[in-house]
Amino acid sequence: MREFFVVLKFEFLNFFKNKAFIISTAILAAMIIIGLSFPTIKNAFFGVEKTKEGTAIEEQEDLGTFGYIDSTDGKIDINTLKQNFPAGKLKEFTSKEDLESEVNKGNIEAGFILEDTLKYKNIIKNNEMMGSGEGMFEDAIIETYRIKEFENLGINYNEVQGLIRPEIQSETVVLGKDSANNFLYTNILVFGLYFVILMYGQLIASGVASEKSNRAMEVLVTSTDSKNLIFGKVIAGALAGFAQFFTIIALGMITYQLNREAWDNSLDFLFKIPADILLNFALFGILGYLFYAFIYGALGALVSRTEDISASATPITIIFIGVFFIAMTGMQNTEGILLKVASFVPFSSFMAMFVRVSMGSVKLWEVILSLGILFISTILIGILASKIYRMGTLRYGNPVKLKDALKSLKED
């Protein structure tokens, strides 16, 4: 046990000397701090003015200018049209050529030629995927038409507007999980877990391969149990990875609290994740990390050069990316059969079951069974990895294929 803790301490401190670890932590921290501080920065330099009472109000955003030509001979009330067009300002043009020229130059967002009360042409530069205000212009035309026709009938439009657009009051009663509200933080946690496993798996594999290349591993393997080495490396990586992850989360929480007013408390839900969700994330996340870290450690022992790691780890990396996509698509339908099956397979259960717990309805026995399978599988993978680790570190030359390594272990 003493040897295990010596390896654990040594490997853990090595992560904090690794440039990739330090740089990635600094970049992520900077992104979180800048991202959560953006509304405050924006308000400070661009969008806030003071009222007479001294309270800060945000200036109205300029949504752009749209051109129009009125060819209806007064059939449309332009002032009413402008009042009901929320996409931006409407600027009048007298000729089609001028309107098209301004659209082509990008000086205005789009142009509209009014030909009749309910007929117009839309002038745009490129037919983009994003709308050019056409839908809102149509709504403004319809609203203008209604107002005028009701006036012609001697009816006050404001009095009947409630009949045309009645205000519906509804309340949603959620009997299970509120998947819509839980989607964002589930997405962030799953992506964070994906990033941690992929990054630290590669770091562990690289560390094993580099030690093997300088023959230092020969001394270590022959002087201590290989289980101490592989378990020490993997658990040290787990501690470093989750230290980095929770440091980023803590910085995010502190930064958000400092900028909470600028966000108008709109992200409160993101930093009030239920305790049971966090507990499940911690349990499944740690076991999932250890499961893959043992595999990456074993793969690192099968190569003699760090350059060969990518090729050696490609199959397991493809599986891991596939698991990530299953979890991400499963967020759209937590009752899907693929996500349910994946929540009991060790390669994917750490993500799939967490998604189901966070966004769907899962029975307690399912969670316990999935966690038990993953726990036992992780221990077995760890033992297998230690044997591959011991055998692989004493072999040099061309990379050893995983199937050949397993065959050699079976023969021994």
Automatic annotation (TrEMBL):
Residue stretches making up the ABC-2 type transporter transmembrane domain: 19-386
Pfam family, any one: ABC2_membrane_3
UniProt keywords, alphabetically: Membrane, Transmembrane, Transmembrane helix
GO molecular function: ABC-type transporter activity
Keyword Transmembrane helix appears in the UniProt entry: yes
InterPro entries per the UniProt record, alphabetical: ABC2_TM (IPR013525)
Membrane-spanning parts: 20-41, 184-209, 229-256, 277-303, 309-330, 337-355, 367-385
Major location category of this protein: membrane
Protein name: ABC-2 family transporter protein
